[in-house]
Amino acid sequence: MLKYYFNIITKYSLIIGLILSMSSCNAIFENDITKKKVNLILPIDGQVLATNQVNFKWQELEGATNYRIEIVSPTFATLQNFVLDSLVSGNNYSYILSPGEYQFKIRGENSAYQSLYTGPYSITVDSISDLSNQIIKLNSPTANYYTNLNTITCNWDSHYAANKYEFQLRSDTGFTSTNILLFVPDIVGSAYTIPVSYLQEGKYSWGIKAYNQNSSSEFSSRNMVVDLTKPNDVTLVTPLDDVTTTSSVVVFKWDSGVDTGIAQSTVSTKIEISTDSMFTTFYNQSNLIYLDSLEVDFSTNNDEYWWRVIAMDEAGNESENYSSKRKITIP
Description:
Immunoglobulin-like; 3 domains; five-stranded mixed beta sheet; 2 helices; 24 strands; flat; disordered N terminus
């Protein structure tokens, strides 16, 4: 009896040890950066900035894979607003701040360790009426936006020194085209809805600039794609219809639909595997499959199943029809 309990204790001790060793595996292969600090390049402590776009830059820290930057207002000691807590890659970062006093600090991180914080450093974003160095912060649509709608409302943050805004819609992406499709001056608010007639299927870029009596900003712009075309229907490949499989692990394969429109977006597929031919009860539903196959393990179930696939693109269009449905039997 004592030998039995000894074996049980030994067994679970080994399991616990294995779990602990796996959890500490990352620490073994990561550099310990806990006593290091990031060297800041910009902005300088105490700097007064004449632009609302603040560029943060630092030297790369050996062993760090990402960097955490925190910004508060007015100081960490007299905190009124926690403006930003973001994990970024690379050794630079830009952020738009309203006029006011701020403090920020930065540290390096990897999957196991965190460096010491560098900072806090103080900066002031000056409230000036000259818009020439100011950036308008765009909110929506997001950058590189895909949509199957041709009614789009563009939103941006109001700028304290701006009286009005100018909106432009251009053909193609990059906001470099000389083909200006729509020009709207004297917008008082911070939103504009593009008329439906201007948004046929295609690639576009839109931009906003602010101005007052004495100055104007540069355009802030984003790209978007209007895709109104549905992908082609999916064609099933294997397994064939009404077959009994030789294994409980089944690889489903199909040929995806393609986007044949003017503005072609990436096509993914959704497979549905049901326990009934009407697809009311699902054994498996998998979305956003970019490969034309899926492996499914039916090892705990011996039964009949039906499966079908539908295509969808990045803009949200679905193929006109599901693929034909097929039946398989798991022995």
